[in-house]
Design a protein that fits this description.
2 domains, single chain, five-stranded antiparallel sheet, alpha+beta
């Protein structure tokens, strides 16, 4: 999941002077705690020992912020490298996304019925979808320019979750049958 130590050092050396804030967001304390092993590895690649880190935290808030920001960006960059599908599930709308190189493909399942909670439908059972005329499937494509990883980050910050893409693919097939 994480780049080689040489890439860590190169990334740090090229980014450290430029970074005033993270490209995405700084990892929370809880997230950092979950990535403690990787953070220690990152610090060691920067030739920062445990004692050095304690001193830096106590005396150099700018360097502390820079190290945390660089590490946070590297974690998000590495994570988003492999992400292709996202999903946001709500009672009346399921929005699936396939984020490709230069476009985002959307597949939405909606209902206006208050009797249906889309989060409870068995999408593997074709009859549970086909026999329900209160469901609407809509697909569309959206081109984008810019940083794909930032686009993924913005979706995730807006309550989308990383998905395996199975529901997206199922909705695309169902839309094609209509």
């Amino acid at each position: 999941m994480f780049p080689t130590p040489q890439l860590f050092i190169h990334s740090f050396l090229t980014m450290a002077d430029k970074i005033t804030s993270p490209k995405y967001r700084r990892l929370t304390t809880e997230e950092l705690e979950m990535l403690e092993k990787e953070f220690v590895y990152f610090l060691s690649a920067q030739n920062v020992t445990a004692d050095d880190w304690s001193k830096i935290k106590a005396t150099d808030s700018d360097r502390t912020a820079t190290l945390l920001n660089v590490f946070s960006d590297m974690v998000f960059d590495a994570s988003f490298e492999k992400v292709s599908y996202l999903i946001r599930s709500q009672r009346n709308v399921i929005h699936t996304v396939h984020c490709q190189t230069s476009q985002i493909m959307h597949a939405l399942l909606t209902t206006t019925s208050q009797d249906i909670d889309l989060r409870t439908i068995d999408f593997k059972n074709k009859s549970s979808i086909d026999t329900n005329n209160k469901l609407n499937i809509r697909t569309y494509a959206e081109s984008f320019e810019g940083n794909r990883k930032l686009i993924l980050f913005n979706y995730i910050e807006n309550d989308f979750l990383i998905s395996d893409g199975q529901l997206y693919k199922r909705l695309i097939l169902l839309a094609a049958e209509d």
